[in-house]
Amino acid sequence: MGLPPRTSARTALRAALAVCVLGALPACTDADKGGNGDGGESSPQPTPHVTTAADICTGLVAYWVKEALNGSKWAGLDWEQKGLSNEQLAVHDEVLAAARAKERTEGRPAALTFADRESRRRCAAANGATGSSDNWRPPSGTASPTALTPTPITPTPTHPS
Description:
Number of helices: 5
Shape: flat
């Protein structure tokens, strides 16, 4: 008799979530974070990790270099589809060329490790390599208000002939 196992698991999950939302379980409250549960002082919480431009650059460049080394079908996307800036593309191309040389001499595992390390080094040296060339535009809030005011268009009078 009873409910099917799947239904009872759903019901149990819903009940547990409801209890957590209401804060009735100690595991769902701040008491497990170092406090004494009575609203008093608790131990300091670790500060959240701040992702820098160099971190983002490293993640993007290393990912796409490794995709190319592994022969992924997605490695052929262009720089915009990969989410790279023009400067990050230059870093990518340099790291990929060096990683391919490393692969020829030391094998793919060494090249993949090198790609992570070299991407981190070059992105940090370039402060995230966020620069672009032709398509870069300043953020919208930096232009003067007069530069953003459209010039009215006056119709050219037509003269009957």
